[in-house]
Structure formats: structure tokens, C-alpha cells
Specification:
Chain lengths: 382, 387
């Protein structure tokens, strides 16, 4: 690129202008990247090994209703079903009201005879696993959660119930790790213990199913729902992924919001870039005239301006991504949206949009400058 | 002596393209600010304004919401006979034992599903909530599987029609009325007869009992009595406090909204600063002449600041005007505590508009300050040399 020094010199003509434009683009790209990261977070629920083979069965009418445990036995008989794991979302309150909302974490009861066959992404040492299985009031927690709460093995964890009017007294017997850090924010305990406290009503919140193969999944889901459609407690089965996504769906039309905000961001970026390039070209009519006199073609002159626009955008985009990653890292520590990060796809999308905006906004001023008649251009030299 | 406004005005008119583009930048920022605030305000208003301070919601001890609570018929008998409960002109107790649950329905014919709250109640439900009125149609009658749907829910679930049917729990329910409640949370709910709902969902017990106390002292007394009664295991909470708790659902939205607004504002302001700097450089000659005539550095500073403010004002006003289109737009989100839909509307209030405008003006000030200082600091000699 033999013309690079020329382009560079032009950019450095007004250092302040270039710096302000790059900073403006950087801030806007940072915002775009953060929005995309939030979108990713909401739409890419934790993926564990074997997740594609898992189904979640809930009550057909409402997530709030429980399923009879008897359903689990019938489900196990359907061909293609490998593991049936009843579980219940306990929620409840840990500590006082304020500390609970600050240090929120998932609390679930599961049928521990099948849990480890179902939750294949949980990596736990045999020692911890056996200790947990042996103790009725035992509990296991994700490594990240245990570290955050400062729990050690053997600690007593008391949880006051709200969905179920019983209070839990658990003892930490094991720590597990998962590939996705989000999964490590949960605490699991024995469904049997919850049942006993409730006086064995024979119901659970949801039933998790692990199918033998990926192809079995849709067939099994339909079969399960068909089995119970006329009973008192019909079911609704969906893949685990759909189940996780249903919570995002409830939040509202997230996609629409993300698109609208992204549009606003790119619009402002276009305005700022176009304005600055236009200002630059207005001052350089003389230069353009001289260059055309020397023999540079219209296309080349336009190319120089476009290259300036592109360079500014690239610089701004890279800086913005750098800011975004720093911001997302610090937010990630705070635990509210743990695991919020920028995927390569989103990063690429942000850079791509920034460059596209840069080129498009530089387009018209570039064209104007390149089309100037030599005579008119020289006339304006003061 | 102040430089006449005409100078600023003429200048903006001359460099038309730059003026428009910078003003447009301010428009976007102020628009974004107003719309995000309107969203927050809309949700808050629906939740905060719901509930009366003289109503008490009696639930099972320890449950945070009506969804997970249950109150037996015997307990209800005890509650409804308490002397602290107010009576209406006909001597009936203002007290409603209700069943509250959620149903998973699609929004529109093939839309995404969400949980909508279903409240089984009686005509006492309206008595204890005087803000609730039937806007169209009539109230449901017991035993006929009839429903009254809140205004907000009607809009969110486009398949609902007055005199049309909805099916859930293996039966068809007829919508006989639309209820309105001054924007409160009840407009997101579906109401039906308490026994019809109880039979359909096989719930022998009530979820909660809403009562009106005769006076604030009576309310306190009632709360204490229930707390003291360890057999019943109930607790009472003021209805307005109950709904206020649920505003935490909007917290994450508010935080994200603030981040968006702040960053967008910074980005736009850098752009505005650029425009003003360019403007100052282009007008070096004019500044020289102004200084030579006798205008002081202070006047020059003020003049350039005013230009920047004019741009911000124009852009801001346009932004506020456009945001008015959003006023009243229906939307909804999930109440994380009850897991059910809260239908609400964007609310663009005069306070939001004025705050948005002031926000825009502040940005104009910040963006224009450094360039204006630069202009004012230029010595006459420097400026004339550039001629």
C-alpha cells in the first residue's frame, strides 16, 4: 500500500478531529458490542455435553403446577428414553432478604439415583459424589458458587422455603465443575429429602429426560405429551434448550429491542463519521484539485477518502471492542449476569457494521470531492 | 458586550449540512433517553400504583407471592369473621378469598407463549378493589365458565375477543367482559369465578384473601393477630407494599437502559465537539474581526456556546416530539416474582420530556465548551495571521 503515508498524513492533519472521531466510534462500538453480548447471553443458554439429547417435561398448563411422580415411571417405558430424572426448583430464601437478592443462586432438588446420569456436564470427584449420595441432607454446589459464598465442605446451608412451605437444612458434601460457568451457580440436593419434609405428597416440579440419541428427541417429546394429554395432569415437553429460552421469551420482544437500539447506535455513528469526513473534504478541495492535475484519477481520489474513513472506523472499532471486553469482564465478576462475554461472531459483527457504516458515510463526501472540477478546486485555495 | 444572536443563527443557517447532522445526533440521544425512561416509568406506574394502603393481603406464612400461597377454607372463615374488616353500605364484609395461578398461553394465534395470571374471585373482588371497573361487557357469573379479561391482557393476547372463547384446563371459557383498572397490574390478569377456577384446576384451597381494614390501626391489629396465631400459619401484608416489592423486576431493564443512554450520549457528544471545533477553525477570520472590533474573549466564548446550545435545543425538541409517538404503546414483560405477564404502556410524561431536553442541553454545553474556550483564547494576532 504505497499510498498509506499519504492517507496517514491526511488523517493526522487535524489530530484532534481524528482522535475525537475515533473515540466517538469507539464508545458507540463498545455499546453495540455490549448489546450484542447481552443478546447472546439471553439466547444461548448453557450448553453442556449431551444437552442436545435432553428434554424438560413440565405441567402442560403452567410452570407453577407440579407433576405426579407416577408419571416418571410411565415415561421410562417409552422407547428411546435413557434416563428419567425428576427434579424440583426449590428457590426459597438464603440468609436475609437483602443478602439473598444480592447473592442469588439456583436451588434445586433432584432424584439423585439418576441425577448424575442425566446431568452429564457435572464433573465431580468420586469421593464427593459418594459422600453426597450417602447423606440424605447432603448437597453439592458448583465450584464458582462455593468460592463466591465462601463455603467449605461440611458447611451447613439453611434455606427458608417459599414455594414449598418447608425449611431446608443442608450440608455441603461435594463440589462440581462444569464447562459453562453459568451452570456452576447452582446448588443441588436430594428430592427424597424435600419429599420427606413435605410429607411425601408424590409430586415434583419438572421431569428431565435424557434420550438415547438425538433423533429420538422429537419423537419422545411427542410420545410423552400424548401419553398424558387426557389425564388430570397433562404435560408439555420441550428440548432443554427451548425450555431455557422460554424464560428469555417471557421477558418480552428482546430481539426487537436489540435491533432498535443497534439501529440507533449505527445511525449516530453514521452521522458523526459523515460529518467529520465532510468537514475534512470541504477543506481539501485544493488538494484534490492538485492531485487531479498531477494525474490521479477520480476513483483514486475517492479511494483515498474512503480509506481514511475505513481506517478511522477500524481504529474506533478495535478500541471499542477493547473497552467492551474490559466492561464485560468487570460486570461478569459481579455475578448478576455471570458469564456475559463477547462471542467471536458478535465481535466480528460489531467490527463489520462499524466499517460498513464508516465506508457508507464517507461515500458521499468522497464522491463530491473526487468529482470536483480542477478549476473549481484551485479557485478555493486561499 | 454580547455578540448578537443573529450572528449565531446566520452561521448555523449557512453551514446547513453540518447543522442538520449534529442536531440529528442530539435528536437520537434525547429520543433514546425519553423512550427508555418512558418504558421504566410505564412499568413502575403499573406496579406501584397497584394496591391500596388500607387493603391487606393475607397469605400463607413465608410465601412471597399469591402464586405459592394457600389458605384453607377454615382459615378463610376465621379471617372473614375478624372485626377489623370493613363492611360496605349493605353490611357485607369487604373481603375476597381468591385463587391465583398462571396459565401458559400463546400471544396471538401462533405467537410466543407466556404466563398469564388467572384470578378466581367473586363480586367481592371488585368490591375490595374499587379501582377495577368493567369497561365493556359484564362481570362473569358463577358456574358458567365465564371470564373477564383485563384491558392490558386483551391487547397482549390478540386472539382474545369479547364474547369469544379461550380454552385451558380442558374446557372452553367465554370472555364476557373487559376490565380496566387505571393502568394497575390487574389489567394484565384474567378473572373468573373462584369455584369454577378451583374445580378446573383441582385446587380445593384458596391462594390468598384480600381484606379491607376499617382503619390503619385496625390493619395493624389484624396483622399482629394473624402473626400471633401460630395455628393458622398466615401473614398479612399491605397491598400497596406487596406490589411495590415487585418493581424489582424492572431493575435490570433500568440498568441496561441507563448504560445505553449514557454511552450513546458520550458518542454523540464527541461528534458534536468535532463539529464545533471545525466550526471554530473555519471562522478564524470572523473571530479576528470580532475581536478587532472590540468584542471581548468572554463574548466570543458565550457566542459559540450559544450555537452549541441552539443545536442541542433543536435536536432535543425534535427528539422529544418523536418520543411522543411511543406514548401509550402497549408492551409487557415478566414479573419475576409471580412469573406472570405484566402488561404495561410506555408513559411519556412532561417530566421525562423536560428532563430529556435538559439532558440534551447539558450535552450541548459539554460538547461546545472546549471549542468555545479555544475560540475565546485566540489572540487577535493569531486570528489575523490566518487571514
Amino acid at each position: 500500500m504505497k499510498y498509506f503515508p499519504l492517507i496517514w498524513k491526511n488523517l493526522m492533519r487535524s489530530k484532534r478531529r481524528t482522535v475525537l472521531t475515533v473515540l466517538s466510534s469507539a464508545v458507540l462500538v463498545m455499546l453495540l458490542a455490549v448489546i450484542l453480548a447481552i443478546y447472546d447471553y439471553l439466547h444461548s443458554p448453557p450448553e453442556g455435553e449431551g444437552q442436545e439429547r435432553r428434554l424438560m417435561v413440565q405441567h402442560g398448563t403452567s410452570l407453577m403446577e407440579n407433576l405426579p411422580l407416577a408419571h416418571a415411571a410411565k415415561m421410562a417405558e417409552i422407547s428411546g428414553v435413557q434416563v428419567v430424572c425428576p427434579m424440583s426448583w426449590f428457590q426459597g430464601q438464603y440468609g436475609s432478604d437483602q443478602t439473598d437478592s444480592k447473592n442469588w443462586f439456583g436451588r434445586l432438588a433432584a432424584d439423585t439415583t439418576t441425577f448424575f446420569d442425566y446431568a452429564t456436564e457435572c464433573k465431580i470427584s468420586k469421593e464427593h459424589r459418594d459422600a453426597f449420595l450417602a447423606e440424605r441432607q447432603g448437597a453439592i454446589a458448583g465450584k464458582r458458587l462455593a468460592e463466591k459464598m465462601g463455603w467449605k465442605l461440611g458447611d451447613r446451608i439453611a434455606i427458608k422455603g417459599d414455594i414449598y412451605p418447608v425449611d431446608l437444612e443442608l450440608y455441603l458434601r461435594g463440589i462440581f465443575t462444569t464447562r459453562d460457568p453459568r451452570e456452576e451457580g447452582n446448588l443441588w440436593f436430594h428430592q427424597k429429602y424435600l419429599d420427606e419434609l413435605r410429607g411425601n405428597p408424590g409430586t415434583v416440579g419438572t421431569i428431565g429426560i435424557m434420550c438415547r440419541t438425538n433423533e429420538d428427541v422429537p419423537r419422545v417429546a411427542t410420545a410423552i405429551d400424548a401419553l398424558f394429554v387426557n389425564s388430570d395432569t397433562p404435560t408439555r415437553s420441550m428440548t432443554e434448550r427451548e425450555f431455557n429460552l422460554s424464560f428469555t421469551q417471557m421477558m418480552g420482544n428482546v430481539k426487537l429491542i436489540v435491533i432498535s437500539v443497534s439501529f440507533a447506535i449505527l445511525f449516530v455513528m453514521a452521522l458523526v463519521t459523515a460529518n467529520t469526513i465532510a468537514m475534512g473534504t470541504r477543506e481539501r478541495t485544493g488538494d484534490a484539485a492538485v492531485m487531479k492535475t498531477l494525474g490521479f484519477l477520480r476513483g483514486q481520489v475517492m479511494g483515498f477518502v474512503l480509506a481514511e474513513g475505513a481506517l478511522q472506523s477500524i481504529a474506533g472499532a478495535l478500541l471499542g471492542l477493547f473497552f467492551a471486553m474490559g466492561f464485560l469482564n468487570s460486570v461478569g465478576q459481579m455475578g448478576w449476569m455471570a458469564g456475559l462475554s463477547l462471542t467471536p461472531l458478535s465481535a466480528g459483527l460489531a467490527i463489520g457494521c462499524a466499517i460498513a457504516v464508516g465506508l457508507l458515510s464517507a461515500g458521499i463526501p468522497a464522491w463530491h470531492l473526487a468529482s470536483i472540477k480542477i478549476v473549481d478546486g484551485l479557485r478555493k485555495v486561499s | 458586550m454580547a455578540i448578537p444572536l443573529q450572528y449565531n443563527w446566520r452561521n448555523l443557517a449557512t453551514r446547513r449540512v453540518s447543522t442538520w447532522m449534529t442536531a440529528l445526533g442530539f435528536t437520537m440521544v434525547v429520543l433514546m433517553f425519553c423512550v427508555i425512561q418512558a418504558l421504566s416509568q410505564g412499568l413502575d406506574k403499573t406496579l406501584i400504583s397497584s394496591g391500596r394502603t388500607d387493603n391487606l393481603l393475607v397469605m400463607r406464612h413465608g410465601s412471597k407471592t399469591e402464586v405459592y400461597s394457600n389458605v384453607s377454607r377454615d382459615a378463610n372463615r376465621v379471617i372473614s369473621s375478624m372485626p377489623e374488616i370493613a363492611k360496605d353500605e349493605q353490611g357485607r364484609a369487604i373481603c375476597a378469598a381468591e385463587r391465583y395461578l398462571t396459565v401458559y398461553l400463546p400471544r396471538g394465534e401462533e405467537g410466543e407463549r407466556s404466563n398469564v395470571a388467572v384470578r378466581g374471585t367473586t363480586e367481592a373482588g371488585m368490591r375490595v378493589r374499587p379501582s377495577v371497573k368493567i369497561e365493556q361487557g359484564r362481570y362473569f357469573q358463577p358456574g358458567l365458565n365465564e371470564l373477564v379479561v383485563g384491558k392490558g391482557a386483551m391487547r397482549r393476547f390478540s386472539q382474545f375477543r369479547l364474547n369469544g372463547t379461550v380454552s385451558f384446563e380442558k374446557r372452553e371459557w367465554t370472555i364476557v367482559g373487559i376490565l380496566e383498572a387505571d393502568g394497575q397490574a390487574f389489567e394484565s390478569e384474567i378473572w373468573g369465578d373462584v369455584e369454577d377456577i378451583g374445580n378446573a384446576f383441582r385446587r380445593p384451597e384458596f391462594s390468598a384473601v384480600l381484606v379491607r381494614a376499617t382503619s390503619p390501626q385496625a390493619a395493624d391489629a389484624l396483622e399482629k393477630q394473624l402473626e400471633a396465631n401460630t395455628q393458622l400459619k398466615l401473614e398479612a401484608v399491605r397491598e400497596d407494599a406487596y406490589y411495590k416489592e415487585q418493581t424489582n423486576s424492572g431493575l435490570s431493564m433500568a440498568i441496561i437502559g441507563t448504560i445505553i443512554t449514557v454511552l450513546l450520549a458520550i458518542g454523540a457528544t464527541f461528534g458534536a465537539m468535532n463539529t464545533m471545533y471545525a466550526s471554530v477553525s473555519a471562522r478564524t477570520r470572523e473571530i479576528a474581526v470580532l475581536r478587532a472590533i472590540g468584542f471581548g474573549g468572554g463574548s466570543v466564548l458565550v457566542a459559540f456556546l450559544i450555537e452549541s446550545l441552539l443545536l442541542a435545543l433543536a435536536g432535543g425538541l425534535a427528539g422529544c416530539a418523536i418520543s411522543l409517538f411511543f406514548n401509550g404503546m402497549q408492551t409487557g414483560t415478566v414479573n419475576w416474582l409471580t412469573f406472570s405477564e405484566v402488561a404495561f404502556q410506555f408513559r411519556v410524561t412532561p417530566e421525562i420530556l423536560s428532563t430529556g431536553l435538559i439532558f440534551g442541553l447539558i450535552l450541548g454545553l459539554v460538547g461546545g465548551l472546549l471549542p468555545a474556550v479555544r475560540a475565546s483564547r485566540m489572540t487577535i494576532l493569531q486570528a489575523l495571521r490566518a487571514v
